[in-house]
């Protein structure tokens, strides 16, 4: 079930910037990876907006996103690296709300959230 209304401008941006010329799951995953890598100005602040069993983050927890996770980590869903104590940890980008000052960064994160909310898959 689709829970978010279609947004023509966002659909156009995703189609022509993120998944342009992507014909299968691997190409869509890589399209998203490089779209986000090019748009996200890191580091940036984010806040955990949902609990995930694969992540130790708690709802409301503030984190610093420092870079994209390795390509291999993003083949099922987009993950980013955060500072977590003295280490770096990969967490799903879908779990994080963008609190960056940079508008382009938050727009790109919102594009990913929109993609997920619409029920789209690689």
Structure description:
This protein is an alpha+beta fold and 122 residues long. Helix content is 34%, strand content 22%. The protein has three helices and five strands; from the N terminus they run H-H-E-E-E-E-E-H. A five-stranded antiparallel beta sheet has the order 4-3-2-1-5. A hairpin with a 2-residue loop joins strand 3 (79-84) and strand 4 (87-92). The longest helix is centred in the first third of the chain and has 15 residues, at 25-39. The protein is globular and about 40 Å long. The two termini are 17 Å apart.
Q: Report the average pLDDT across residues.
A: 95
Could you state the oligomeric state of the chains shown?
Answer: single chain
How can the largest sheet be summarized? 5 strands, antiparallel
Beta-strand percentage range: 15-25%
Number of helices: 3
What are the secondary-structure elements, in order, as H or E? Answer: HHEEEEEH
Low-confidence stretches: none
Shape: globular
Q: Which range best describes the helical content: under 10%, 10-25%, 25-40%, 40-55%, 55-70% or over 70%?
A: 25-40%
Radius of gyration, whole Å? 14 Å
Q: What is the topology, as strand order, of the major beta sheet?
A: 4-3-2-1-5
Record field, number of beta strands: 5
Distance between the termini: 17 Å
| Structural class based on helices, strands and sheet pairing | alpha+beta
């Amino acid at each position: 079930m689709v829970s978010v209304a279609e947004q023509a401008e966002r659909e156009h941006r995703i189609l022509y910037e993120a998944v342009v010329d992507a014909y299968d799951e691997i190409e869509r995953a890589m399209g998203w990876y490089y779209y986000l890598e090019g748009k996200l100005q890191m580091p940036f602040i984010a806040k955990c907006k949902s609990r995930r069993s694969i992540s130790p983050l708690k709802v409301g927890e503030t984190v610093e996103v420092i870079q994209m996770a390795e390509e291999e980590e993003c083949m099922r869903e987009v993950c980013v690296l955060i500072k977590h104590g003295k280490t770096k940890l990969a967490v799903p980008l879908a779990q994080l709300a963008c609190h960056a000052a940079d508008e382009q960064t938050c727009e790109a994160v919102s594009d990913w959230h929109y993609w997920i909310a619409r029920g789209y898959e690689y």
